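Progress narrative, Year 2. Work on LacI family transcriptional regulator from Nocardioides mangrovicus advanced from sequence curation to structure prediction during this period.
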Amino acid sequence: MTTTPRRTPTLEDLAARAGVSRATASRVLRGQTNVSDEAREAVLAAAEELSYTPNQAARSLVTGRSNSLAFCVDESQERMFSDPFFFGMLRGAQGVVAGAGQQLVFTVTSREEEHRRFLAYAAAGHVDGVLLLSLHGRDRLPQELEAIGVPTVLSGRPLTGASLYYVDADNVGGGRLATEHLRRAGRRVVAHVAGPLDMCAGQDRLAGYREALGEDFEPELVESADWTVAGGEAATAELLRRRPDLDAVFAGSDLEALGVIRALEHAGRRVGTGADEVAVVGFDDVQAADQQRVPLTTVRQPIADLGATMTSRLLERLAGEDPPRSTVLPVELVVRRTA
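Result:
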């Protein structure tokens, strides 16, 4: 005995079941607002009854949209897969993308040839918009994407001065919070292991540190690193060579802070809040910060919310809305045992 395969319901079937026109059913499925509440409820109920799933391939042919967004990280694969910051951002972005019924395409573009390939991929219509993370220097990739008609939202303030859409944490405020906390604790020689100074986060956290110190700022107490544990360790070794009297360190990231602690311990210095210990503050509040032998005091930025907000801004642009070009989310100090 053979059975006839069940026919996949069409948009016409859905409209007939809901008692509305094909055009009205289509508007409901696209999330448009020019539909009555009664019609919307009828269409959604009918879609559930029929187990209706829109034909994305057909929709793409009609709308010229791929229904895909790119999550593009301008870093090496090694850095991308070793830094929990990016996974937090990805988690936040994916939640919004999935809720919108779209797909997220992940790519890493750290070299010029990778930039060119990604531009060609985007220009061919494979993605409708781009979430762009971790730009260095005056990289013009976002301007090139916008020039070919691919809306883009950046993670972090652009250094080019261009009028681009971006979402950022209050890095200046965070740097100030960390440094003021150390000064209030009586620390007199506060060093800073900065992030890369060709990135907005590195520059802005350093700016907050300088603001908090005012006239007490000393350039020799700043050493730049690359957001990594190894970078933080090497920078701290150099700072100790220059200023063995330092009694506090504000690190530009939690991974750098772990390297700071490693270097201090290697030099025979203890980390903590005691008068004979070196206080350390990080930035990010990744999961590892609270799992150390001495839990790390840090500045928490809302990593998942940053990814979600970037994605919402991009979807707003794709819907023809005009969201704010800059969105800055607040940070907070999380006091644990290193400072």
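The domain at 11-53 is CATH 1.10.260.40 (434 Repressor (Amino-terminal Domain)). Confidence is low (pLDDT under 50) at residues 56-62.
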